[in-house]
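User: I'm curious whether this sequence folds into something compact or stays loose and floppy. Could you predict its structure so I can see for myself?
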Amino acid sequence: MYVIRLADGTLRVPQSLSSDDGRLIGNAYVEISPGDPEYDRWLPESLTEEEAAERRKRWLAENDDLEKEFLAFKAEQDG
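Assistant: Here's the prediction. I'll summarize afterward.
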């Protein structure tokens, strides 16, 4: 999940919620506006919505070798 910078400057920061024993309950985004104490921490790694979409698109187009390697590994583990 990426930190998304919206057109108005608001950041959508991924946040996970887990149970006391460490199990993942869910993932969501929290919105942080300019002026929030955490804003400057997250801003440098933020992407616009367009940049995030381009990364997803590129990942889908370029992950064939990685996917083949993973499937071979998985078959080896299952076999």
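Summary: The chain is about 40% helix and 25% strand. The longest strand covers residues 24-32.
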